Amino acid sequence: MNFEIRREGETAVVAMHGDVVASSVPELRPALRDLLRSGLRDMVVDLADTTMIDSTGLGLLLSAYNSLSKVQGKFAVVNASDEILDLLRTLRIHQHFPIAGR
Questions:
Q1: pLDDT of 63-72, one tens digit each?
Q2: Which of 8, 67, 72, 94 has its CA 20 to 30 A from that of 39?
């Protein structure tokens, strides 16, 4: 999986290009950790090019959310497919942070 991180003012937009699954998380986790250590307070994860998230990928998103919430930061997921939206809603993750579809 490839990903792109771009800054838009005080917000980091993390655009995922591929599935967020156990095999891709090891390369993504350090990049997100570095963002959080840099003092970042707002993160948006863009899933426009993602069709699947497994439990490891969900854990990564929740970990980023938890880290940001500890410092009163903001976290959101945008451009999720209908399937991913259904998954996040079924797991009630949408009650913790904003999610939006395509």
A1: 999 999 999 9
A2: 94
